[in-house]
Amino acid sequence: MKFIVPFIFALALAGCESDLASKKDQMTALTAIENGALLVDVRSAKEVSTGSFDNAINIPHTDIVAGLEKLGVDKNQTIVVYCRTGNRSEQAKAALEAAGYPVVINGGGYSDLRAVESAMQPTQ
Fold it and tell me: Which of 14, 46, 94, 102 has the smallest C-beta neighbourhood within 10 Å, fewest atoms?
């Protein structure tokens, strides 16, 4: 029993650290967007129809490299990708980096990114 409590505590701390890291990544993503980064929603069209950022373009994660090449996006352009949970956006980020796009930020999940955006807004 005395080993279970520290184990549970360690798991809780690991989850908090992960959550803090993702919030920091999302704040970095939002700052990059404010500074002119290209915002790409890599979810399906059906998912995008439920809500998306106004300035985002939609390219499913499986088509991300071809989609950006078709649009003629400069490989040195800062790109922020997001999806529903952050998994597909991480896949898109990896594909873009492998294709020579050096500045790609995983914004994580749409809802989480919206929540961080909302928390960053000045209160009145």
Answer: 46
